[in-house]
Specification:
Radius of gyration: 16 Å
Number of helices: 7
Shape: globular
Largest sheet: 3 strands, mixed
Order of helices and strands: HHHHHHEEEEHE
Strand order of the largest sheet: 3-4-5
Distance between the termini: 53 Å
């Protein structure tokens, strides 16, 4: 008998009532400890392969944004010492998990060769949104056209938020960044 593979790092059914930021971080850390260097290398290789579809003049920035600013953040999760006892917004978390679950189902169908990318993607997306209270793409991430994620007066702005927020393959729908009004 085969063991059923768990789709998500955190299932909606596992959430009973309130959850503190500290408790959510502990869940993410536990999942992150199961991510090994071979998994990170596999996820990096997946992104490098995906980079071949990116405009050549933007490819290095794509790699920096997704390899350094995203995949390699798994180490940051493992070492985070946050003990914040504030409650997580459960409606936002449940909405985010639903979106991530849909993406994972699609990803498993489209990219069955890399099961670890989706797990890392979930951990980092939830971590940056609910633990760090930061946008999923780090400040300074550059998009085609030279537009970047930025922060002004404690508000994060993204140049592509409105164009991507309804994209089922993007996490923009729950990212805390707002659309950059200068680009709108």
């Amino acid at each position: 008998m085969f063991k059923k593979e768990k789709l998500m790092i955190l299932e909606l059914e596992e959430l009973n009532g309130n959850l503190t930021i500290d408790e959510l971080l502990k869940i993410l850390k536990k999942e992150a400890t199961n991510i090994h260097i071979a998994d990170i290398m596999s996820a990096c290789n997946f992104l490098i392969d995906e980079g071949k579809y990116v405009q050549p003049q933007y490819r290095e920035k794509f790699y920096n944004a997704y390899l350094k600013g995203f995949i390699l953040r798994i180490k940051e999760v493992k070492e985070d010492k946050n003990t914040d006892q504030n409650l997580v917004n459960m409606d936002d978390l449940e909405s985010s998990l639903s979106m991530l679950k849909e993406q994972e189902i699609k990803m498993k169908k489209d990219y069955p060769h890399d099961p670890n990318f989706s797990k890392i993607y979930q951990i980092i997306s939830i971590y940056t949104t609910f633990i760090l209270d930061e946008p999923i793409h780090v400040v300074g991430t550059e998009f085609p056209g030279g537009f970047k994620v930025k922060i002004e007066d404690e508000t994060y702005y993204c140049p592509v938020k409105d164009k991507q927020k309804d994209n089922p393959d993007a996490v923009c729908g729950f990212c805390i960044a707002e659309q950059d009004p200068e680009i709108g």
